[in-house]
Amino acid sequence: MQSSTRIYVPLGGNSWIKAADTEKVGELGLTDWRSPKAAIVTYVRLAKPGKVKAFLDGEIKAGSTIRATIGDKSVVQTFEQESETEHYLGEWEVEKPGYLEIVFSGVQKTAETFGQVKGLVLAGSAVNDSASFVKNNEDNFFYWGRRGPSVHLNYPTDERSKIEWFYNEVTVPEGQDVIGSYFMANGFAEGYFGMQVNSARERRILFSVWSPFKTDDPKSIPENQRISLLRKGKDVYAGEFGNEGAGGQSYLKFNWQAGETYRFLLRGQPSNDSTTTYTAYFFAPKIGNWQLIASFRRPKTFTHLKRLHSFLENFLPKTGNVSRRVYFGNQWVRSQSGQWMPLMRAKFSADATARKGYRLDYAGGVDQNQFYLQNCGFFDEYVNIGQEFQRKSIVNQTPGINFVNLP
Q1: Which domain holds residue 201?
Q2: Could you tell me the pTM of the whole model?
Q3: For the chain, what is the mean pLDDT?
Q4: Into how many domains does the chain fold?
Q5: How far apart are CA 322 and CA 375, in angstroms?
Q6: Disulfide-capable partner of 132 in 45, 162, 185, 304 (CB 3.0 to 4.6 Å)?
Q7: What does the pLDDT read at residue 396?
Q8: What is the CATH number of the domain that holds 355?
């Protein structure tokens, strides 16, 4: 029986442009479409196979010829009359559930522009209400949806152990170091510590601690609730951050490489004056010793390390269509009394973009006795949020750290 379901896919939260000169996809879609070099790529995940009919929603100028491609099939349509309506592109057969890549581009035009496109309308037997895509821009989800889903590994621990140290090893496979990625190794209740790809020329080791004062504006934090920098390593920048909470931030510009394994070590020391000091150390094989990133004091806080986790996020919407993966291995914690304990279990979680079902290109699990996370790129297979993973054996011994010699 033919499905009567029609879905509206706004370009603003679901599309990217390849080989564009000046074209951009914004909240209103594609508004100044001039170049025949621009290929507009839209992603929708369909829940079943069948037929798909595709339509452009927008104003297409008379005399415009447009090519649409899904899979191996391309259809070319010429629109002789200008109108603000749905413009039929063609029909395709979808063989299996999963992500559909819909590409359209201008072939030739007689006006200055091809027109403007707000979205795509899909209909047919493969289309139903279980299709996944960014539905609208409520709560700024065009931005968050194009960034893609953030995914996490939460490591269960016994808080009675009074955990003082958290150790992790991170490997980004070759080709997975996509610009915009934050491979966060040592997360805790009050902050995070990991490595980023900030641009084609810059990479960072980033360590931040949130203020107990809830705000996105660091300048509004009262003096008695500000994060204090106690010390920092050579060439490390230290300052403030905002927009996603606020607090103290530090980073080292460091050209870390895909395929190498890096070591992260975090310390949490509560004091009797109701403050806790967090100190982060980084180890690169080519340097051969531990480097101090920074040590921050957090006021109104008396706690050992809690809510330990790792995560993978993309912070650039323009690279949200590119997949990336990271491995976390040989995790350990050390109690205040000096007892090392391996972290053998992890629970998978994801952000609101995933929980709303707007993006389902996320995964995690165990591979070669390491936990891994993967997101973005519109791959088909995903894991259930809340799923638990477990490593089967302890391959490595406790970390060989000489605490006395730490900087």
Answers
A1: 148-405
A2: 0.94
A3: 95
A4: 2
A5: 8
A6: 45
A7: 65
A8: 2.60.120
Report, as an integer, the average pLDDT of 349-367.
98
Q: Looking at residues 395-399, what average pLDDT do you find?
A: 78
Indicate left, alpha or beta for 286 from its phi (over 0: left) and psi (-120 to 50: alpha). alpha
Evaluate whether 392 touches 369 at the Cβ level (below 8 Å): yes
Q: Any idea which of 243-247, 258-262, 372-376 has the lowest mean pLDDT?
A: 243-247
Q: Which of 146, 111, 163 is nearest to 24 (CA)?
A: 146
Residue 20: the pLDDT is 67
Type of residue numbered 396: N
77 assigned to some structural domain: yes
**Residue 300 domain flag:** yes
pLDDT score of 392: 86
pLDDT > 90: what percent of the chain?
90
Task: Give residue 250's identity as a one-letter amino acid code.
Answer: S
Strands 39-46 and 98-108: antiparallel
Question: In this structure, is residue 140 part of a structural domain?
Answer: no
Instruction: Please report, for the domain that includes residue 89, its CATH number.
Output: 2.60.120.260
For residue 374, what is the enclosing H or E element? strand 370-375
Instruction: Name, in order, each residue with C-beta under 8 angstroms of 18's C-beta and a sequence gap of 6 or more.
Output: 38, 39, 41
Residue 348 and residue 248 share a domain: yes
* Residue after which a domain boundary falls, among 133, 161, 189: 133
- One domain for residues 352 and 270: yes
Strands 324-335 and 236-241: unpaired
Distance of CA 381 to the CA centre of its chain: 17
Residues 6+ positions from 391 with CB-CB distance below 8 Å: 344, 345, 366, 369, 370, 371
Q: Could you say which DSSP state residue 396 is in?
A: S
| In a shared domain, residues 86 and 163 | no
